């Protein structure tokens, strides 16, 4: 449920990346029964033009929608509520407009909604981009000309319900929005549990859907249309993440709860190959938890996920794997658990936001339940130095 897009701001050098994305977890009625866990993607991270990071979440019921931001590049954080949403919050994503203003998208009550930074400050009231039929799966990316484009999975009611991939886009950079248009053919309900979008080295967007047979579709070279959906050599996956390698080749990661598979372009903008990357040492089965992926300052990709055990009896903890060299030609590390989260909790932590600080250090946000199982909180950790080891966890309070 994550994707990276190239930061096109001036003066940033050849390759700086920022993640929009991603995920949170709420608990069902009984904490001791794993079958009642439900993953809800309720977090996203983005970066400002000046390099300050911002994290968004819809997991805090009292706040409705909430954000935290760095007061200076690489610095400390403040937090506040976003405008109260007129819907029950579900999936939330964020992206940066061509003029530098952040825009946040959410799916709730069958519609897609958005709010955006006003100039010179503050946030607009939530407005609907339309519905019905949107259950929560969506993603957003910027076209090469700066126009944002939203992709979502929409349920079409009828004698036999179906699902389809749809998209809407800004008609001009920073501007108004089109209506929704379909991409590809309808599929059976529930066959596409996740959708992510990446950007090819030549700027064309490529969309990936998870399921028993993950598939992908891409903008044609003229950027005036789309290919047909074709299978991706990834294997059955519930959750996806996508990022570009140092050489521009896209790489997609899939999680089925017991292993992480990957598929990669053989050449930039080209054909695909795939395989199983690693078996999780402490599987989260039967639930495939979200994935996040992003590049280190030296270009090596690093993938984050939730694994069982490793932090005490019954506790699940965030884990990660990383390329041993840029582009992964020397292979990958094994799966390693990050430090246990020190605050007592009955919940399941889920990686919820990943972004690169202005100095290149990755920073990870995790959303989880507190020790009473009644309210969520977030924690974050960061690389102590670019490409380096990780700090302990620090709690954020909504």
Helical residue percent? under 10%
Taking pLDDT < 50 over at least 5 consecutive residues as the criterion, the unreliable ranges are 5-40
Beta-strand share of residues? over 45%
Summarize model confidence as the mean pLDDT: 82
Largest beta-sheet details: 7 strands, antiparallel
Our count of helices gives 0
How does the helix and strand content classify structurally?
mainly beta
Q: Count the strands?
A: 31
Q: Report Rg.
A: 19 Å
Shape: globular
End-to-end gap: 23 Å
- For the biggest β-sheet, the strand order reads 9-10-11-12-13-14-15
What would you say this structure looks like, in words?
- By secondary structure, this protein is mostly beta strands.
- The protein has strands spanning 2-6, 17-20, 24-26, 38-40, 43-47, 53-57, 66-70, 77-81, 92-96, 102-108, 110-116, 127-142, 148-156, 162-169, 181-187, 195-199, 205-209, 215-218, 230-231, 239-244, 250-255, 259-265, 272-279, 292-295, 301-307, 317-322, 336-337, 350-356, 362-369, 376-382, 394-396.
- It is 0% helix and 45% strand.
- A hairpin with a 5-residue loop joins strand 16 and strand 17.
